[in-house]
Amino acid sequence: MDIQVYTDNSQPYAKLPVTVHLLDEATRQAWNAPHGYHFRSKHVLLRQVLQQHPLAVLIDTDTFFRTSPLQLFARVATGKLLCNAIGPRYGANQKCLLYKNLLTLLQARGLADCQMPLINSGVIGLTAEDASTLDRSIAMMDEFYPLAREAYTLEEFCLAVAAYRQLELVECTDVIHHYWSRKAQFRAKIQAWLRKHGHDPLSQPALADVKLVNDQLPRPPALHRLGYKALSLTLPSHERQFARELLYGCYPYPNEFDRACAPAWWDKALENLNARCGQMQPEQLRQCLRHPGLRLSLGERRKEIEAHLLRSSHT
To answer: For residue range 119-129, what is the model confidence (pLDDT) as tens digits?
Structure first.
């Protein structure tokens, strides 16, 4: 198995057994042209790789391997498209921008209908024989971007259309966890591992710790969560979720890499509070954190949390 990394920052991979391809700004702009659509580059890159290899699997960076990546290659075959997950039918959400703006056009051309399955493209695996699927998806991105530029999932939608009635869809959620939500918590685990083992990432202690950097979102046991909910009832209603999420970060998880997620929990708590109540000013945040009920709940970690969130609110 040949692992190749395409990145604009090679430093994190310097001591890993991978081939690194450094991407410059001109290359990225060319791959994203003509509309500057970032995700277009995924298909351009995989199309180029399939000119040199009989099969390839492209994996987004925001992923965890649940088991050996070799299992992915066993699922790639001519006539099949490997994706991370097979989603609902195209017609399931008729309020979606991709449905409202593109259905009539796609039906008129015989490219798609309401029964077409959508996909998550955190993983894309194809054989060289089926590389023309990417030619079609790239052409559709270029054509449809002006019609649905606000649609975040346009890239994977175009891949689903290109594969519809042409290729069998195969998913791999048992092998790959695509953590596109809660990125901060998962990245905190990885950064903690890198701080500990980045100097020698292939050592036995480093490889042993890989098993602890798992794809589970750290959450306190149910009894503790119930206690946090009870404690939060002493607070104003709009601050209760904020308190519970702060406490999720304070829980003394037995796994050191779960404990490393504490700042990510606190940041997410503040982000959610701002979304519900509007941007909190520093003095408002101080008053909130110093509410007697919350002071009692956070205990000795309150000062640490306050300092962290005040720094975050100024960045």
So the answer is: 999 999 999 99
